[in-house]
Write a structure and sequence with these properties.
Helix content is 29%, strand content 16%. With 263 residues, it is α/β, with parallel strands linked by helices. Helix 1 links the parallel strand 1 (20-26) and strand 2 (52-57). Helix 3 packs across helix 4 (180-190). The longest helix is centred in the C-terminal third of the chain and has 21 residues, at 227-247.
Length: 263
């Protein structure tokens, strides 16, 4: 669904290079309240840069094996694949898709995010996760919590379909535990996508990122839905959101806020 309409109280004269679709997602669990915090900030960036922002809430990957029952909330992480598939059907309108986990938000409102992809040969830009690969640009060792996809690249549909097939296979084997990132990495390696990945060192680098911040769980946080851990991350998000909105007068005014946790 598209975000609600905003009040026309802010205008911008920025010049965008590409048309980018910004997208986030959540289920109907505790993470929906986190989405209430991150979505308005990313939507504010999209408004400034005259881009579109959408949210997919719920679980797109419900399969017959679920017997009509709602699956575990972790299944919502596969919404990323569904969003990608829908975006590819709109590639006549959008050049790129920025996919954001619920705990991620745009932080640098002065940077044109489309410039992160250096040229048309790149299919995907994402944060490099292996510290021992600092000199490697093309790798499957990426974090998929924040990904910038080139919808015009010829390899994008192939990798998306491979990711989709792996997700369905894992679900049907009753083995899915939230490993959407692993499934994407496998698709990149086994289906020839690695040469078209642009691994970023800083732009999407978690809480210290320069462009899009991603407030991930710390290594010791094993329970992904522990309310204490979620509250801690929400405090960090709130602080970053306050910083963003304080940098440019009026930039966050008039943004419609959807009560995702109450839907």
């Amino acid at each position: 669904k598209e975000e609600g309409k905003d009040k026309p109280s802010y205008t911008s004269d920025v010049k965008k290079e590409k048309n980018i679709l910004f997208a986030s997602y959540a289920g109907f669990d505790k993470y929906a309240s986190m989405l209430e915090m991150t979505a308005p900030v990313s939507k504010t960036y999209a408004r400034k840069w005259k881009q579109d922002f959408v949210v997919l809430q719920g679980t797109a990957y419900i399969q017959p094996i679920d017997g009509g029952c709602a699956p575990d909330g972790r299944r919502a992480t596969l919404n990323k694949i569904a969003i990608l598939d829908m975006a590819l059907k709109k590639k006549d309108k959008y050049d790129y898709l920025l996919l954001l986990d619920t705990d991620a938000m745009v932080y640098d409102f002065d940077r044109d995010i489309s410039t992160i992809i250096p040229d048309d040969s790149i299919m995907l830009a994402a944060h490099r996760v292996q510290e021992n690969e600092q000199s490697i640009v093309h790798t499957a060792n990426i974090n998929n919590g924040v990904t910038l996809w080139n919808l015009q690249h010829e390899m994008t549909p192939k990798i998306v379909q491979s990711w989709h097939r792996r997700a369905i296979k894992t679900i049907n084997a009753r083995e899915y535990r939230g490993e959407d990132q692993v499934l994407l990495q496998q698709a990149l390696v086994q289906d020839g996508g690695v040469p078209y990945v642009y691994a970023l060192p800083n732009e999407f680098a978690y809480g210290h990122a320069t462009v899009v911040k991603h407030f991930i769980r710390r290594r010791g946080h094993k329970d992904w839905k522990d309310p204490n851990i979620l509250d801690d991350r929400e405090l960090m998000i709130e602080k970053a959101a306050t910083e963003v909105c304080g940098k440019e007068p009026g930039v966050c005014i008039g943004i419609n806020r959807v009560p995702y946790a109450s839907l």
